[in-house]
Specification:
This protein is mostly helical. The protein has 3 helices and no strands.
């Protein structure tokens, strides 16, 4: 199964395991990418074998560096 084809069932298992989003109070900069597209991007890179710098942004994953950093957050 392609990461972009994962439906609601796997997400229902994964979502409770993720840390809560940090509170965003008066901080400049971009808003954080939602967890679901970030996870799809994280799974897309090893599935396709492309580098972290080149996931297609039109698929909604954000930048490759965003997906690469997310597990550390």
């Amino acid at each position: 199964m392609k990461p972009s084809e994962a439906g609601d069932e796997p997400w229902a298992v994964i979502e409770p395991l993720l840390p809560k989003k940090p509170c965003r109070t008066r901080r400049p900069g971009r808003k954080r990418l939602d967890d679901r597209p970030a996870l799809r991007g994280i799974l897309f890179v090893p599935h396709t074998g492309i580098s972290w710098e080149h996931p297609p942004q039109e698929l909604g994953y954000g930048s490759g560096m965003t997906c690469r950093r997310r597990p550390k957050e």
